[in-house]
Amino acid sequence: MTSLVPARDIPLQVISPAASSERRVNPSWTISQLKAKLEPITGIAPSLQTLTLRLPNQLDGVVISTEDEDLTEIGSWSLTPYAELHDLVLRRHHRLSSPKSHAYGTTGAQTAEGDDVVDYTVKDAQPASTHPSAGTAIPAPSSVPKYEMPVETYSTLPDTVLAYKKTHHIGRFDPNAPELKAKKVDDLWKEIAEGGIVVGARCILPPSTTRRGTVAYVGLIPGIPGVGPRVGVKLDEPAGKNDGSVGGQRYFECDPHHGIFVRPDRVEVGDWRELGLDEDDDDPDEI
To answer: Which terminus in the chain has less CB density within 10 A, N or C?
Structure first.
């Protein structure tokens, strides 16, 4: 008696140069039906596909092909037993792939649970040079030429941030910008003097009381953002960002990760002794 129980679908991991996704096939599908369903996934026309089935422990794959692909079901191959083993079918992985070389082999494998793995290969019979997808692969962003607008062109455009700043006299376009910059620099030097920030002074970097060190440099650091002087601190612990140098220019000597340059308002000078190995922050409000 012919069984009326429909064949179970089998999940497939479809892999191609254009996409990778999980799909399900049914052993009752004909070869033509399978190829038609693979076309939007692999980008290979049905008439150009060559299906190959490889089972575990096989060195060579078996080509799925007959004279009448419109009537031959894919379950006619060794796919049928696996589809009917319900406990294994739910965990079994079947792989469809089409590599960039357009010709390759696959290998059988076994999952951690002991399930056999059936690999399907979709081979493109069309020459790579004439393939519809030739040259359509998405290149790496770093390799894509990017347009860079010349500074002269940007400066003449009306609706830009630069134009807005010019119109409203913001930043360096403020007529009073030089005076404001000079005042800011003077205030920073005044803060250094009033805070007793001198080379050799012990200090902390608030709000932490354990990030301690010794002032090793006070002065300008060309090439860094902002204006005015910076304070270089030689930290007791490797909690810094450099070794006392910035941009290849050395300002003081210290071990790697023991140096840091900060604004004067981030330095508090005082009798801050170096902490021992078993000492920690004594502020109960900090975690």
So the answer is: N
Look at residue 142 in the predicted model and tell me its pLDDT: 76
Query: Quick one: residue 90, left, alpha or beta (phi over 0 = left, psi -120 to 50 = alpha)?
Result: alpha
Average pLDDT on 199-224 reads 92
Average pLDDT, the chain: 75
Question: Residue 260, Cα to own-chain centre: how many angstroms?
Answer: 29
pLDDT single digits (tens) 29-59: 888 888 888 788 777 788 887 777 766 566 6
Closest CA to 40 of 19, 63, 24: 19
Q: Please give the Cα distance from 268 to 209 (Å, whole number).
A: 10
CA–CA distances in Å: residue 144 to residues 100, 138, 148, 171: 20, 10, 12, 34
Residue 180 sits at φ, ψ, to 5 deg, of -65, -40
Rounded Cα–Cα distance for residues 43 and 19 (Å): 9
